[in-house]
Write a structure and sequence with these properties.
The chain has 4 helices and no strands. It has 131 residues and is mainly α. It has one domain: Up-down Bundle (de novo design (two linked rop proteins)), CATH 1.20.1440.60.
Length: 131
């Protein structure tokens, strides 16, 4: 994609970039699903995949506590993608190689999200007064 003259700070986050890439991987996969899955697995998988990046972007504009919560939503969406990916494999819509590659990408994404949440949590804990 061409670079825009206008920039948002969340776009620098590697986890956001990876989430955007994963959404495009899923977009290619769901186009191969049969038409009868259009409103079921196809829609669910695409929405969950896109939601990972969307929550990162949305949460980044708020406070650390808000961002922490939105990253939680991203994590839930990533886990939902694990289930969608498994359903796609069980229904023989994707190859084992695609299934494994998606799991690899999701593992990397969830580790990144968890790591960022820990960093934010540590920052939040250092702000709270000790009694």
């Amino acid at each position: 994609m061409e670079k825009s003259d206008y920039h948002f700070s969340f776009e620098d986050l590697l986890v956001y970039q990876k989430a955007m890439e994963f959404g495009e991987v899923v977009n290619k996969i769901v186009k191969k699903l049969p038409v009868e899955e259009r409103f079921e697995l196809r829609s669910q998988f695409m929405r969950a995949a896109d939601s990972i990046a969307l929550n990162i972007a949305e949460g980044s504009a708020g406070s650390d506590a808000q961002f922490y919560n939105f990253l939680g939503h991203s994590l839930y969406s990533a886990n939902e993608c694990v289930s969608c990916n498994t359903k796609a494999r069980l229904r023989k819509y994707i190859t084992y190689e695609e299934f494994e590659k998606n799991r690899e990408l999701l593992t990397e994404l969830t580790k990144m999200i968890i790591s960022l949440r820990k960093k934010i949590s540590n920052r939040l804990n250092n702000l709270t007064p000790k009694t």
